[in-house]
Design brief:
This protein is mostly helical. The protein contains 13 helices and six strands.
């Protein structure tokens, strides 16, 4: 029976990759969901299968995945754009915009931002990331449902992020606008969900006449900034919530330099 399960699961994984034309990143997200479901099932004794070991032993060729052709320009905010958008967010200090600003300062995931509580700010000036927003289709209404859960995307996601003085100031400004709620991202009785942050970020990009990018691109900008500053790998991993630095370097590192800066670097490197 176990061997049948292994065979069918391998077939399912390979068929899904081919059928949906998944990139390596999309497959990684699918794997995370499957592993999470099996861990939950094992915890409540619905199964004894160690799905993590299965995926660890699964041999997939790089050729199996769709190649993702992306431009650096679409993946992060460059060195010219960051000051512009930070100024815009500070000049329009709504709770939503301050939340976006805090993302630039901490690199947290948008779901983690939605789940932040003021009590997550620790005395040692760190921010404890321990919960997140999840979205799913309600089996009752059929509509998209938002929920805050008391766990992170992965074990490494539960972490303590070092807060800069500017980040602490941003949190203080959020508290002034939101003095009574335990969740940071809340206006009165209205909880602010992740889709709102992306809408506000698009609005800021449009106002500044720069290319639209999602909240996740801020996280990539943060990761790139850490690597550019030669922050030690272990600290980059802990700040980003990654268990392996190769994840950060492979999926989160892009050149922040503008075209002029890039040309200058090449001219200096190749003077002949």
């Amino acid at each position: 029976m176990f061997l049948t399960f292994i065979y069918k699961t391998k077939t399912f994984v390979r068929t899904t990759i081919a059928k949906l034309n998944l990139t390596a990143k999309a497959y990684s997200n699918m794997r995370t969901l499957v592993i999470g479901a099996f861990k939950w099932a094992k915890k409540y004794e619905y199964t004894t299968i160690s799905i993590s070991s299965f995926f660890g032993d699964l041999d997939l060729s790089k050729k199996a995945f769709k190649k993702s052709n992306v431009r650096d320009k679409t993946q992060i905010f460059d060195e010219d754009e960051v000051p512009l958008i930070l100024s815009y967010l500070r000049e329009h200090p709504t709770i939503e915009n301050l939340g976006i600003l805090l993302t630039f300062q901490t690199g947290i995931r948008e779901g983690e931002l939605s789940g932040l509580k003021f009590s997550d700010v620790c005395k040692d000036k760190t921010l404890h990331i321990q919960r997140q927003e999840i979205k799913y289709k309600s089996p009752v209404t059929g509509k998209c449902t938002h929920e805050i859960v008391e766990y992170t995307k992965s074990d490494a996601g539960d972490r303590y992020i070092i807060l800069t003085p500017a980040a602490l100031e941003t949190i203080q400004k959020i508290r002034i606008l939101n003095p009574h709620n335990e969740y940071m991202m809340q206006v009165g009785e209205r909880k602010i969900w992740t889709n709102t942050f992306n809408d506000r970020l698009y609005k800021a990009c449009d106002a500044l006449e720069i290319e639209r990018r999602s909240m996740h691109k801020i996280r990539k900008t943060y990761g790139t900034a850490l690597l550019d500053a030669n922050v030690e790998d272990s600290l980059v991993m802990s700040q980003m919530g990654h268990s392996d630095i190769t994840t950060t370097r492979k999926y989160y590192y892009y050149s922040r330099r503008n075209a002029e800066h890039k040309r200058e670097q090449i001219m200096n490197a190749i003077p002949f």
